[in-house]
Amino acid sequence: MSGVRGIVATGPLPRPGWRALLLDAALAAALGLVCFQAATDDAGVPPLPPPLPPLGVLPEVQPAQPGSTLGALLLVFVMCAPLVLRRRYPLAVFWATTAAAALVLATDGARQPKLYPGVALTCLVAVYSAAAHSPYRLPALASGPVAALLAVALREQLPVEVPADRLPFVLLAPLVAVAGGHHVWRRRAGEDQQRLTAEARAHEEALRDAVAGERARIARELHDVVTHHVSVMVIQAGAARTVLDAAPDQAREALLAVESTGRSALTELRHVMGLLAQTEPDAPEDPQPGIEGLPELIGRVRDAGVPVHLSLSGERRPVSSGVGLTAYRVVQEALTNMVRHAPGATGTVVVEYAPDVLRIEVGNTEPGIPAATGGTGGRGLIGLRERLAVYGGTLRAGARPGAGYQVEAMIPWEAT
Prior knowledge:
Blueprint (H helix, E strand, L loop, with lengths): L17 H22 L29 H12 L9 H20 L5 H19 L3 H17 L13 H76 L5 H27 L19 H10 L4 E7 L6 H21 L5 E7 L3 E8 L14 H12 L3 E7 L3 E9 L4
Parallel strand pairs: 1-2
Antiparallel strand pairs: 2-3, 3-5, 4-5
Helix pairs in contact: 1-2, 1-4, 2-3, 3-4, 3-5, 4-6, 5-6, 6-7, 6-9, 9-10
């Protein structure tokens, strides 16, 4: 087995677009036209035929003209055509072009000195392309000087005589092309690295935003579930303690209501905790509460001894699960705040299916006794605004002088 494992790419693989290919095709066609015109300059106009010899005298055999238009066309095509792929396969194109240029000079160069500039320019383009686009950096950078040294070493075997005063150009021109191509490659590699770094940074920021958004969503769910159910359970437990000695049956009913509220809280908490775990794709998910769960929610609040009236108006329309959950959380948060901060008040819940929006209004009268708990900082209302903003909805909340507190949410039907 051979110990050669091949050349390893140390740079980005070139992937030119169709515009670059069209430009390279135009460049190859222009260089091919220049070289073809130089190769056919003398052979393009055929010489006048010699006069006919006298009768009885055999005509003199004329020597064949060196070179031909077809041969020059084939040689120029072999030399310039690979330049179309100079960005995609730069190193292979360089050696193919160099070999074809040597063949052109060996077969037609001695007769046509006008070929020198076109052949030299074609080779320089190939050298520059290898240094600027090849991912194989070491072979690409060494190819230009190696080709120049081979041209100088083999110049005596070729029918092309390179004057001594042109030897510096033969040696320096490929080096200059390699240096220019390497400079372009380094600049492009730096730009690619900056772009990749910017993309990685943007990806990290998007990931952090997604994690922060998910944490905020889970925090909102926990806040809504825990504060509501715990507040209702505290009221129910307090009612049971108050009537425990005087009316054991009422105390038992209050304790049963506490148990029912706790089970409901555990169910919703289990669903929230499920957001943190990896579930199977086909695993059934617990249903989320929606507008259809409002009567049960209000029933639990009534069982805690808080009078709440539910009113539905307008033509019923189906809503998505996300909008239904948002409406449910609006009512839940508003009733929780009423229970905590307006003890003794009476609540009203209005769900209106208006032509343009789904309107949810929760209000309460003035509290009958002073609230025992302090302010919460409005975290629940902030979470509600974020929920509604996802669907283009709005939230208005504030005290009504002499009429208690009101929360109004509006969700456009386009979001449902």
